Amino acid sequence: SGPNDCPVDSEQLGQATWTFLHTMAAYYPERPSPSQMESMRTFLSTFSQFYPCWYCADAFREDMEINPPQVASRRKLSQWLCERHNVVNVRLGKGVFDCAKVDERWRDGPADGRCD
Ligand code: FAD
């Protein structure tokens, strides 16, 4: 929506932000140190205060209170984030993403090698 030198709308912001968040989770350590786990918790809490779609941020903070970040491993963080994104998908009437495919989507690419 709009030429690409225009400020982003909440859809473009969402796509760019999910790309960043899922990719960050896909490359999070398999065995994070206690300090890396604490930093990730802090990052997510800070992110949810300043994400510049306010109603999105409010809903994300509420969801995180019920479902606190799982920062113990790359796999746990990736799955947790996939579930959080699905909560938003359902709220918006979009299809639910199969979280078994999160590494294929955000890290490994499809088996046919077309993304290599
Ligand atoms: P997006 O939802 O942006 O997804 C991008 C790509 O991610 C998809 O093409 C798909 O390949 C992949 N994907 C989809 N689901 C998953 C999943 N569960 N796990 C891993 N990968 C997946 N918009 C609102 O209108 N109201 C809100 O309350 C709201 N809250 C948001 C909260 C956050 C934290 C963020 C980051 C965004 C929020 N958005 C919200 C924006 C919204 O989620 C979408 O980004 C936007 O509507 C564009 O949707 P899209 O269909 O292009 O794909």
How would you explain this protein's 3D organization?
Helix content is 62%, strand content 0%. With 116 residues, the chain is mostly helical. The chain has a single domain, classed as Four Helix Bundle (Hemerythrin (Met), subunit A), CATH 1.20.120. Helix 1 runs antiparallel to helix 4 (74-91) and helix 2 runs antiparallel to helix 3 (54-66). It is globular and about 40 Å long. It binds flavin-adenine dinucleotide. Flavin-adenine dinucleotide binds at residues 10-11, 14-15, 17-18, 22, 51, 55-56, 59-60, 82, 85-86, 88-89, 92, 94, 97, 102, 105.
Can you lay out the helices and strands and say which pair or pack?
Elements lengths: L9 H17 L7 H17 L3 H13 L7 H18 L10 H7 L8
Helix pairs in contact: 1-4, 1-5, 2-3
The site of flavin-adenine dinucleotide (FAD) has 22 residues, from helix 1, helix 3, helix 4 and helix 5.
Characteristic key phrases:
binds flavin-adenine dinucleotide; 116 residues; 5 helices; 0% strand
Which homologous superfamily in CATH is the superfamily?
ERV/ALR sulfhydryl oxidase domain
Structural class: mainly alpha
Major sheet characteristics: none
Number of separate helices: 5
Rg over CA atoms: 15 Å
Q: Find the CATH topology.
A: Four Helix Bundle (Hemerythrin (Met), subunit A)
Q: What percent of residues adopt helix (DSSP H or I)?
A: 55-70%
Q: β content, as a range?
A: under 5%
Provide the domain count: 1
Order of helices and strands: HHHHH
CATH class equals Mainly Alpha
What's the gist of this structure?
This protein is an all-alpha fold and 116 residues long. It has one domain: ERV/ALR sulfhydryl oxidase domain (Four Helix Bundle (Hemerythrin (Met), subunit A), Up-down Bundle).
